[in-house]
Structure formats: structure tokens, C-alpha cells
């Protein structure tokens, strides 16, 4: 009888350790979204949890980059836009620095379109897009550090 109880206890201890491991903060695919969003960096959980102020700051930084990211998602990447300066005809007609702002303009036009969806009878579609954008802004993106570098150039 003792032999039957021994392995079961060990098995329950192993299960508890395995469950704790599977629910650890660093296993972002096995943890709920709220827990991921509460971390400063979900890929480096040792940095700890973010405060409400840090989450608000992260959301505002992500929101500031939303028009450019949206414009690039609808058209082309930033590298592709930079290659336009190599086309001689475009370089003579439009200064290439102006071309770099086109994704932002296109993203702002798309956001105006979303705002118009909110005012029309298609409010549900507009609300869906706004809530998706809010979730994107709350997310701690690992490449957010590069945005700090681009502002200095």
C-alpha cells in the first residue's frame, strides 16, 4: 500500500511544479492577455510588472506611432518608401523627405475614415477597429526601443 501512495504524491508534486512552470510569466503563449499586458516586457519578465503610469505612457507612445504604422501597413514598409529617392523622376518632382511623410498622411486619412465609420450607421465596425487599435496600443512591443532611436535622427 505504501508503494501505491508514494508515486501518487510524487506525481502530484511534479504536476504542481509543471503547472507553475506552464503558467510562468515568461511563457507568454500560455498566459492570459491581462498578465502579458501588465509586464514591462513580456519577453523579459524579470523586469517586473508595469505600473499604471508606465502602461499609460506605453499606450501614448504606441498611439503616437499609430498613423505611420497604419500607413505602412496599408502601403509599403519604411524601407520601400526610402527607396523612392533613388528614382530620378520622383527626386526631381517631389523632395524625397516629403515622400517619407506619406505613410503618416495615408495613416491619418485611414483614421479619418474610421472616425467617419463611427458617425455613420456602421458604428459597430468602427468600434471594432477602435478597440483593436486600443489593444495594439496597450501591447508592450519588443521593438518599441527602435522608436526612441528614430526620433533622434
Major sheet description: none
Mean pLDDT across all residues, rounded?
A: 79
Number of helices: 10
DSSP, total strands: 0
Overall geometric form: extended
Following the backbone from N to C, one meets helices and strands in this order, namely: HHHHHHHHHH
* Share in helix: 55-70%
Spans of at least 5 consecutive residues whose pLDDT stays below 50 are: 1-6
For the record, give the distance between the C-alpha atoms at the N and C termini, rounded to a whole number: 74 Å
Strand content: under 5%
Rg (CA only): 23 Å
Name the structural class.
Answer: mainly alpha
Tell me what the structure shows.
With 153 residues, the protein is mainly alpha-helical. Helices cover 67% and strands 0% of the residues. It is built from 10 helices and no strands. Helix 3 (52-64) crosses helix 9 (123-138) and helix 4 (66-74) crosses helix 8. The longest helix has 21 residues, at 2-22. Mean pLDDT is 79; it is low at 1-6.
Element layout with pairings:
Blueprint: H1 2-22, H2 33-37, H3 52-64, H4 66-74, H5 78-82, H6 88-93, H7 96-99, H8 102-119, H9 123-138, H10 145-150
Amino acid at each position: 500500500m505504501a508503494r501505491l501512495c508514494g508515486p501518487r504524491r510524487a506525481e502530484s508534486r511534479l504536476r504542481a511544479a509543471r503547472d507553475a512552470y506552464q503558467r510562468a510569466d515568461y511563457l507568454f503563449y500560455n498566459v492570459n492577455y491581462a498578465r502579458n499586458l501588465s509586464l514591462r516586457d513580456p519577453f523579459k519578465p524579470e523586469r517586473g510588472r508595469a505600473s499604471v503610469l508606465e502602461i499609460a505612457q506605453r499606450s501614448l507612445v504606441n498611439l503616437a506611432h499609430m498613423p505611420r504604422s497604419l500607413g505602412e501597413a496599408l502601403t509599403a514598409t519604411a524601407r520601400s518608401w526610402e527607396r523612392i529617392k533613388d528614382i530620378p523622376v520622383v527626386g526631381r518632382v517631389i523632395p524625397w523627405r516629403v515622400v517619407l511623410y506619406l505613410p503618416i498622411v495615408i495613416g491619418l486619412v485611414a483614421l479619418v475614415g474610421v472616425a467617419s465609420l463611427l458617425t455613420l450607421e456602421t458604428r459597430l465596425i468602427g468600434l471594432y477597429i477602435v478597440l483593436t487599435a486600443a489593444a495594439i496600443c496597450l501591447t508592450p512591443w519588443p521593438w518599441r526601443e527602435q522608436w526612441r532611436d528614430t526620433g533622434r535622427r
